[in-house]
Design brief:
Structural class: mainly alpha
Radius of gyration: 19 Å
Number of strands: 0
Shape: globular
Length: about 300
């Protein structure tokens, strides 16, 4: 019963950093460069584990707890998220609410760890991170609520299994398109990618997420980098579950292969976006995030209306 969910967890733990490598290679191709090896994120994580962590005398246990809680939270999220038509090991009714709260907890501890250093730069990045998340989380929750209404199910596995190909061609298909547009924005902001943040910047004044982890080193930084890759994998599976129609007779292995292909397709799309557009000005970011929330609200209205028509 748990064979395929366990396989999906193992695949997530092994392949999540590869999404970062695909994004970096895509950006290199667009820039006319050879770029880093696809496995560079793995090398970086293993190298960090081989180094010792350095702690400031101004930090407390909060600073050390941030990376550990972050990796624990993303692993729990991986246990919840379905993949390839198979429900997660911890799947239950209303699990999508817990998933959103888990990411909120991860961000909360990361922000606390940044503030614990007493650095004004890290405090600035924490302030921006919290502002963006306060605007992105409603879009995520409302979008999942719209899909729950459309599929008449409260678990992520039930939601994805309740969105077959016929749903896209029915009146509810417009709701799904609105949710996809909203989640595409949420995916970029939650993973700190362009046009919201630049993970490769080295200027403290322009950093958002990266400035919060400037004082982390060694295994702590490895946990942060790995948990960020797992978070991208989990959020990518939400998009994958929506765009990959599930049929009851489909082979789980085939569906898992399709899901992995879609995930790396998303990584390529992120690399293309980062190659063809620049980072937005800070005042423009809230407008785009509010637009994502509005799209999710419209999806809820359409899903409710569609269900009313069916009744």
């Amino acid at each position: 019963m748990y064979v395929f969910p366990v396989i999906n967890i193992i695949l997530g733990l092994l392949l999540a950093p590869l999404m970062i490598g695909v994004i970096n290679r895509t950006k290199a191709i667009f820039g006319g460069r050879h770029g880093q090896p696809l496995l560079q994120p793995y090398y970086d994580i293993f190298k960090l584990f081989s180094k010792a962590a350095v702690y400031s005398t101004t930090t407390s246990w909060v600073f050390r707890a941030g990376p550990i809680v972050g990796i624990a939270v993303t692993i729990v999220a991986l246990l919840i998220i379905p993949m390839g038509g198979s429900a997660g090991i911890l799947s239950f009714s209303g699990d999508f609410i817990l998933l959103a709260y888990l990411f909120g907890m991860m961000r909360f501890l990361t922000v606390l760890a940044a503030l614990d250093t007493g650095s004004p730069f890290e405090g600035m990045g924490a302030s921006r991170e919290v502002t963006f998340s306060a605007l992105a989380e409603p879009a995520l929750l409302l979008g999942l609520a719209a899909l729950a209404i459309l599929s008449d199910n409260m678990s992520l596995a039930g939601i994805f299994n309740g969105l077959p190909l016929e749903t896209f061609l029915a009146p509810g298909g417009m709701s799904i398109m609105l949710v996809l547009a909203s989640f595409a924005i949420v995916f970029l902001v939650e993973n700190c990618r362009i046009p919201f943040d630049d993970p490769t910047t080295h200027l403290e004044l322009t950093m958002i997420h990266e400035v919060m982890v400037l004082d982390h080193s060694g295994p702590d930084l490895a946990f942060i980098e790995y948990s960020a890759a797992l978070k991208m994998w989990v959020l990518g599976l939400i998009l994958t579950g929506i765009v990959t129609p599930i049929t009851g007779t489909a082979n789980p292995l085939i569906l898992t292969g399709i899901s992995i292909a879609v995930l790396f397709g998303i990584a390529i799309a992120v690399g293309v976006v980062e190659s063809v557009m620049a980072r937005l000005k800070l005042p423009s970011v809230p407008l785009l995030l509010v637009s994502a929330t509005v799209l999710s609200l419209l999806a809820i209205a359409l899903s409710t209306f569609t269900n009313g028509m069916q009744i």
